[in-house]
Amino acid sequence: MSHGHDKSLPSSLRVWAERVVGPLSAVQDASHPRETSRVWDVTGGRGRRFFIKQSASAALYERETFGYQSAVPALGFGRAPRLVETDARQLALLLTAVPGTPVSRLTLPGPEHRSAHRQFGALLRSLHGTDKMPGAGRREARAALERLADDTEQHLARAGDLMSASRRALVRRSADHVRKLTDLLAPAHIHGDAQERNALWTGPAVPGQRAPGQEASGQLAVIDFERSRYAPAVQDFVRLACGPWQDRDDLRAAFFHGYGRPLTDAERQALPCLAALDAASCLAYGPDHGEHDVTARGLRTLARLENGAWGAFV
């Protein structure tokens, strides 16, 4: 989908993609509305759709490439894009297209919305692969959490006047508590940006054709793995807890039904703390980059935590 800031596909990327999939008959800007996002929806030979993505940095390119090669295949056919080709020199990935519309852009009836979150939970559990976590992954997950806590002061400094003294104290207490939980949290290969905009929903062929009491039909696919990495599994629940699960216990319950296990005690303690750290990060990043939705998420999360709504996150 175009966002009114069309970015033309560079000729070097077009030549590279056409060597793999043949002449491109259609190219459309599919970037997010931010300067660093560069994604194109293209149609190749025999009418097949693909996405070309140019990463904003080498680190994001490496993360996404590793994610598609190592963890994403566990999700199964049609549940995530497939990596077709990469070009490290151009930080480019060529991906298959999966059907669906971001859940964030849909107004789903209750049963479909719950089904989407139940499938989201099942897909993230497969991605997390906790039972087969390599030793290096476990060490990396522990270090990732420590870095997250260590970044707190930098985020508080950048947030400036958006953070009151009481909210700064809340965030610092959260960082201290997260450090104490480091050894108790299950490591995983996380998605890193698990939210409804990265979950594509394909509903029934004929909307509304479902008998009362019948199970909701439809299929969910997950996209955008540029922030995938080894980290505690609970980090993948933060943006959902700070977003669609607010005042929707049914969506949270459906997600964990799909995930196959409830939060552990350590995860129940960590989730609101991680939400506080995420809020500080939002207030450090959002205003400087004109991303008002990110800033709003941070302010909303801190208000909920400050009002004592810790239990609402778990």
Question: What does the model show?
Answer:
It is a single chain. By secondary structure, the protein is an alpha+beta fold. 44% of the residues lie in helices and 14% in strands. It has helices at 11-21, 58-70, 110-128, 135-150, 152-159, 165-181, 238-241, 249-259, 265-289, 292-306; strands at residues 26-29, 39-43, 49-54, 83-87, 92-96, 101-102, 187-190, 199-202, 219-222, 229-232. It has a five-stranded antiparallel β-sheet with strand order 1-2-3-5-4, sandwiched between helices. It has a three-stranded antiparallel β-sheet with strand order 6-8-9, with helices on one face. Strands 7-10 form a two-stranded antiparallel ribbon. Helix 6 (165-181) crosses helix 9 (265-289). The longest helix is centred in the C-terminal third of the chain and has 25 residues, at 265-289. The chain is globular and about 60 Å long. The two termini are 34 Å apart.
